[in-house]
Write a structure and sequence with these properties.
By secondary structure, the protein is of the alpha+beta class. The chain has one domain: YhbY-like (Translation Initiation Factor IF3). It contains 5 helices and 4 strands; from the N terminus they run ααβαβααββ. Strands 1-2-4-3 form a 4-stranded mixed sheet, sandwiched between helices. It starts with a helix and ends with a strand.
Length: 107
Amino acid sequence: MSLNEVMLNVSDQVRCAITAKFFKQFISMRHFMKKVITINIGKRGINEGVINEINTILEKYGIVKVRMLRNFRSSTKMDKKELANEIARRVKGELVDFRGFVLTFRR
């Protein structure tokens, strides 16, 4: 079972307990980085250009944030967990954090 499945399929209480180690590692890694790149997904949606850009940033920096904008959320009828799974499936990275409509991936 991958981290994506664990994070999205278990209750919030168990999810917080499982991912506490990952959050500590993520926060400690974030302090040494100068900048975490954020990609906004808007009304054009998830296309190959966005996926390629996420993969490029993951190769260069090792971490990227993906923000799902309101235009994107209103144009798609999928739940935000389904959207997170779709992006995680297409990106060559690991879903580290899922807060609101901001996803954080690392490689």
